[in-house]
Amino acid sequence: MKRHTVRTHRSDEGLERSDELAWKIAQVAVDPVEVEPAVADMIVNRVIDNAAVAAASLSRGPVVAARGQALARPQADARPGHGGARVFGVEGAHQPEWAAWANGVAVRELDYHDTFLAAEYSHPGDNIPPILAVAQHAGADGAALVRGIATGYEIQIDLVRAISLHKHKIDHVAHLGPSAAAGIGTLLGLAPEVIYQAIGQALHTTTATRQSRKGQISTWKAHAPAFAGKMAVEAIDRAMRGQTSPAPIWEGEDGVIAWLLDGPQASYEVPLPEWGEPKRGILDSYTKEHSAEYQAQAWIDLARKLGTEHPELRNPDAVAAIVLHTSHHTHYVIGSGSGDPQKYDPTASRETLDHSIPYIFTVALQDGAWDHVGSYAPERAGRPDTVSLWHKVTTAEDAEWTRRYHSDDPAEKAFGGRVEIELSDGSRIVDEIAVADAHPLGARPFARADYVAKFRTLAEDVLVASEIERFLDLAERLPELTPAEVSQLNIVAAGLPLAPEGLF
Q1: What percent of the chain is helix, strand and coil (3-state, nearest 5)?
Q2: Are 261 and 168 in contact (CB under 8 A)?
């Protein structure tokens, strides 16, 4: 990996295009380096993972609405290479940008797919819906799709390693627009000039504030990455038609760094693969065993363990206080340090409870389990003994856990913390966990069998058995699929609810 210094340049400095980050990303996208077998295998895992969580969300409101918008836009062009894309849950071909939109919402709705955390936060699996939609529309084969996804993951993860968006209250999907555009460029074998222009447009149109993840969190949380993917598809289309973009998009005097990030005097060191270096970024990401914010994964595992070992902890009368000593992010974003009273509100939305570690720890402690539906049900959140115990749980930033959270050493990087429980009788219980059980360094790292089991579990009440097997057969052969088979890389369900009437 080579680190590239990225900073603001005055207009009169004459920054060469070859020195712009967008151009360097385009160079990574056009590098024909082979995808390593381990990377291809992990891409298969994540395609299965995305389909699993999408299947479980097909009847949820945001997904129904987004699907309705996509279904209003069937693909009518019969020219070769214009075959349309598939929308999760239904038959037929639809316009690729709208398929990317609908499928992106389905993948993100339950907050249940893969993650990478560094200077910024990300769900790099969000790259798959737009890249897959374009692959289906353009008639690409499985090998091209794998190359495109490898690029999408690589670019998003490299940006996340170097550039913090949340520090400036910018939503993390601002790294997704450029990565998806780059991945689509690789998929289609586009020229670097076209990819460069698309990256600039995709970034320019996908910067938004983090209010979408603050306070009473709305249904837009699932739509935000889908919007970024849709903008990437549209940016590619415009760039292919010869349209240009604001430039230099990151480094310009009125660009992203100068006015949205650390300011005109700031600089970043962005790592990118050198020419001929394999794109391995996906191997540093990790998926979720539980449907909750990633920083909650390890805490769910620890809470389940503690509740089993000490069943008395499930009784709020036995507990005086529970303090989770953890990283800055966990404390201030999903913990009591956020100052959001909604994180303690039993009537809060599912999206809000998903971002409340006091709630999540309490339910996992009491139930010894975590369910993507039942654990968020209003009757579960409102149970009096749960509310009582929940309000005794707070978080505190611990400098060592913050340091480990930001560590570049995979063996040291941690997303958990230390829990200190004061019991009503004066005794104490102290325990800690660094990473989730499903993490690559956890107690039970996820492997292919776990991804397949996750898909089967989440799809069994939604898809018929033959559809489950058909999809898995295609997905596990992804690198060898023909264009016709790529076009069928979708899941179809019966009896899905119709979308509410809208404008279209």
Answers
A1: 55, 10, 35
A2: yes
157, 122 in Cβ contact below 8 A?
A: yes
Q: What would the pLDDT profile of 212-231 be if each residue is shown by its tens digit? A: 877 777 888 899 999 999 99
Question: CA-based angle 246:247:250, to the nearest 5?
Answer: 105
Alpha helices in 341-433 (DSSP H): 350-353, 357-367, 378-381, 384-390, 399-405
Q: How far apart are CA 87 and CA 106, in angstroms?
A: 10
Cβ proximity of 73 and 98 under 8 Å = yes
How is the chain split into domains, by residue range?
A: 2-284, 294-433
Collapse the DSSP code of 320 into the 3-class scheme (helix H, G, I; strand E, B; otherwise coil) and give the result.
Answer: strand
Q: Candidates 3.40.47.10, 3.40.50.720, 1.10.4100.10, 3.40.1260.20; correct CATH number of 2-284?
A: 1.10.4100.10
Q: Which tokens hold the place of 42?
A: 């992990």
The contacts found for 469-475 with CB under 8 angstroms, 24 or more apart, are 471/51, 472/48, 475/44, 475/47, 475/48, 475/51
**What are the residues whose beta carbons fall under 8 Å from the beta carbon of 498, sequence distance 6 or more?**
64, 68
What is the token pair recorded at 331?
């404390």
What's residue 233's pLDDT? 98
Closest-CA residue to 135 (of 389, 496, 486) = 486
Instruction: Determine how β-strand 121-122 pairs with β-strand 319-326.
Output: unpaired
Token digits for 17? 């295009």
Beta sheet of 428-433, edge-to-edge order: 393-397, 319-326, 417-423, 428-433
CB atoms within 10 A of CB 424: 13
Token match 């993917």: residue? Answer: 229
Instruction: Give me the count of residues in the chain.
Output: 504
Residue from 363, 337, 292, 304 nearest 115 by CA: 292
Per-residue pLDDT band at 479 (split at 50, 70, 90)? very high
* 106, 162 contact by CB (below 8 A): no
Distance CA 181, CA 183 (A): 5
Average pLDDT, stretch 497-501?
A: 92
Cβ contact 143:314 at 8 Å:
no
Assigned token pair, 200: 């600039």
CA-to-CA distance for 158 and 285, rounded, in angstroms? Answer: 11
CATH: 3.10.20.600, 3.30.1330.120, 1.10.10.10, 3.40.50.300. Which one for 294-433? 3.30.1330.120
Burial of 37 (0-12, 13-18, 19+ CB in 10 A): exposed
The average confidence (pLDDT) of the chain is 96
In this structure, what token pair is assigned to residue 180? 């998806």
